[in-house]
Amino acid sequence: MNIFVSEYLCSGAWDLTDAESGLLKEGTAMLEAVMTDLLALPHFRVMTVLQQTLSLKSPLIVEALQTGRLQIFRAATSQQERENFKTACRLADCVMVIAPEFEDLLSSRTQLALDCGATVAGSALKAIQLTADKWRLFELMQESSIPTIPTWQFSGELLRSAVSFPCLIKHRFGAGGLGLETFQNDDCLQKRRNQLRSSEEQFLMQPLLPGKALSTVALIRAGGREFFPVGEQQISWKQGFRYQGGTIPADVDARVLPAISDLLNRVCDLLPGLAGYVGFDILLPEDAPHEPVLVEINPRLTTSYTGYRRLTFDNLAARLIDPDTDFPDIKWKQGEMIRFQPDGSSTLLPQSESRN
C-alpha cells in the first residue's frame, strides 16, 4: 500500500516567519514520528514532500530511503510543492494530511487531495471546516449546552460590557497559539483593539480562566471511539502564550475522568464527521475542578502523538491508515509517564518518580 503523508509546514508550501519557527519543529516531529511508525509496517510504502533544506534523521527513515520504501519529493517553491502534492495524491492509496487550521489550510489541503481523487484518512471536510472556525464551534457547543469557555467576537460594542480581566484574544482561525495575547487591564486591551480595528472580526475574546490545561485524543474508527489517556499541557504565560509540550497521563483526580469521557462523547455525537486521530483541548477550571470544559478540537495529528506512541507497544499509525480493520483496544503501558517536548523529544519515567 502506498501512503502519502503531507505535513504542510515541512513541505515548502509556506514561508515561515521567526514567530512561526516553533511550528516547524512541531510539524517535523509529527511527520518523522508517524512516518517511522508507518515504515515499521512491512507492507507500506511511504511518500512525502519536503522543503529543500529539511532533513529527517530517524534510522528507519534513512534505511527506507536507501531501499526505496520511502520516496521524498523535494520542493524549492510553493508552486513546486503544490504540484508534488497533487502528484503524490494521485499515486497514493491513502493520504494523511497534517496542516494547521489558520488560513483555512487544513480544509483547503484536504479539499485539494479529494479533488485529486485521493482517499484521505481522517475527518470529513465539513467537520474540519467547523472545528477550524472557533466562533462557529463555540456557537454550536453553546446551543447544545456543551460546557466551554465563554467567547465573544472582538468588537467594540461588546468589549466594556462583557470583558473581565485577565482576558485573552486569539484568532478565530488559529493554531499553535499564534496570535494569542493576554491582557490585564482595559487600557492595554483598548490600545490593541485600535491596532486591530480593520481586522477585529478575525479575533475572539475570552476570559483567561485559571485551571489545569489538559488534552486527549479520540481515535474514531468504524467500530467506535477509543479515548487515549488524558495528558496535561505545559504552557508558559511569561512572555505571551508558549506551548511547551506535555505529560501523559495527567495528574488528575480519577473521579474527573468519567466526566471528561462524557464531555467528549457528547461532542463527538454532535460532529459525526470526526474520524481518525482527533485532538481535544480541555480545561479543568480552578473553581470547578470536576467540571471539565471544552477549549478546542483539532481534527488531525497533534504533537501529542510523539508522546502517545511511546506509551504503547502497539503501532498507532496502522490504526489511522486502516479504519476498517477490527484492531484490539490499544494496550497502554501501566505505571509509566511520558514527558514530551514540542520538538518530539521525550522522556519515559516511572509514574511514581514523575510525581515527585
Automatic annotation (TrEMBL):
Q: Which InterPro entries match?
A: ATP-grasp (IPR011761), ATP-grasp_PylC-type (IPR003806), MfnD_preATP-grasp (IPR040803)
Membrane-spanning parts? none
Top-rank taxon, per record = Bacteria
Q: Which UniProt keywords apply?
A: ATP-binding, Nucleotide-binding
Residues covered by the ATP-grasp domain:
138-325
List the Pfam families. ATP-grasp_3, preATP-grasp_3
Protein's recorded name: Carbamoyl phosphate synthase-like protein
Source organism per UniProt: Gimesia maris
Q: What is the organism lineage in this UniProt record?
A: Bacteria, Pseudomonadati, Planctomycetota, Planctomycetia, Planctomycetales
